[in-house]
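TODO from last week: model Twin-arginine translocation signal domain-containing protein.
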Amino acid sequence: MSNRRSFLKIGAAAAITLAAGGAIYRMVTPSPLPHPFALDGQARAALNAIIPALLGPLLPADAATRGPALEAALARTHGAILGLPLNTQKEIQDLFGLLALAPARRLLAGVSDSWEQARPAEVADFLQSWRNHRLAMLQIAYLALHDLVLGSWYADPSSWAAIGYPGPRKELLK
């Protein structure tokens, strides 16, 4: 019985922390017009750390082409977010707001340094822990990040050759 109570207490504390983090971020960062989601410094830094952890070997290995590929993936992910309903954009903004707060980043993600200084293994561990977390809210946050990054990556025709996909059949394009 105490195990269940502990689980409920931890879940309630996590929900309160997420809500408070999102509220604080909204108060500190005004919503820009025309889209609620802004790829600001902290969201950009978090995505720059998350994208290589999710895409892994799909990104080019050499530095000359890796940088532009990361920027393109970041731009496509941002575009995918902007294509979502406004309420969903606000939820994603709250998620990045939470990840931007140092205490929340340390407690929930386990990333001790800023996103710019986060080690790739640390980011991969954070994503894996959210993927398998017992709280559904963190699993959903992981799935959102995963689907946004990978979905926007594979939606781009320039990434199809790496997986051997020739593209849609010409008959279907008519």
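Done. Residues 38-159 form one domain.
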